[in-house]
TrEMBL record:
This is GntR family transcriptional regulator. It comes from the Bacteria. Residues 1-63 form the HTH gntR-type domain. GO terms for molecular function: DNA binding; DNA-binding transcription factor activity. InterPro entries: GntR_C, TF_FadR/GntR_C, Tscrpt_reg_HTH_GntR, WH-like_DNA-bd_sf, WH_DNA-bd_sf. Keywords: DNA-binding, Transcription, Transcription regulation. PROSITE patterns: HTH_GNTR.
Length: 217
């Protein structure tokens, strides 16, 4: 119920500032009980999508109030937003964060986090199909964030994990071969291992440049 109503709001079925239909109408529309409906409304309220006031009803909040950094909201939005628009917004976010994360990983990685990154890189090199490649690719990018040794960046990986995996899969399928970007990932990995901060930043920026080309093509 929260998913159905939430995606409806994100899609524009219920415009910001408008009042949602009465409970009875929503219960009939979605085929749910009052208990299920009210739980869904509480969920959407906690995510910033709606707000309730006495004698006013439940209204859709302004877009800038929506918690787009909620894992559910982000995934719901990825399902209803124009695909190219969403992919480019996610890409912009990655371009702002990942090159500097790679530099931090080069500076701050420890034996345990480097081992995780090494395992992910080896899995990418050994991948025999798209699924194996995507799983390893996701582990690699999340591993870079972990290797930063910055506890504020690690949750970012958890936040975008599901949508990032979908983007990585699409990029792999658009490439000439699924592992076409192995050399670019290796450049990032080698720079991190060598503790070359500037090199890691450049290599990650280059890798994301390839990703952007595939998105825009």
């Amino acid at each position: 119920m929260a998913f159905e109503l939430g995606t409806g709001i994100l899609r524009g079925d219920f415009a910001p500032g408008t009042t949602l239909p009465r409970e009875a109408e929503l219960m009939e529309r979605f085929g749910v009980s009052r208990t299920v409906l009210r739980e869904a409304l509480r969920t959407l309220t906690s995510k910033g999508l709606i707000g309730s006031r006495p004698k006013v009803g439940t209204r859709v909040r302004a877009r800038e109030m929506w918690n787009m950094l909620d894992t559910d909201v982000l995934e719901w939005y990825s399902r209803v937003a124009p695909p190219l628009q969403f992919a480019l917004k996610l890409q912009e976010m990655r371009e702002m964060v990942e090159p500097f994360a790679a530099a931090l990983a080069a500076r701050n990685h420890q034996s345990a986090t480097l081992a995780m990154l090494t395992d992910a890189h080896r899995a990418m090199a050994a991948a025999q199909n798209v699924d194996e490649w995507v799983r390893a690719d996701l582990r690699f990018h999340l591993g870079v964030l972990t290797a930063c040794s910055n506890e504020l960046l690690i949750p970012l990986g958890t936040l975008i994990e599901r949508t990032l995996e979908a983007q990585l899969r699409l990029n792999a399928k658009r490439a000439e071969v699924y592992n076409a970007a192995l050399a670019e990932h290796t450049a990032v990995y080698d720079a991190i291992v060598a503790r070359d901060e500037a090199g890691a930043r450049r290599a990650m920026a280059g890798l994301l440049g390839v990703t952007r080309e595939r998105i825009e093509t």
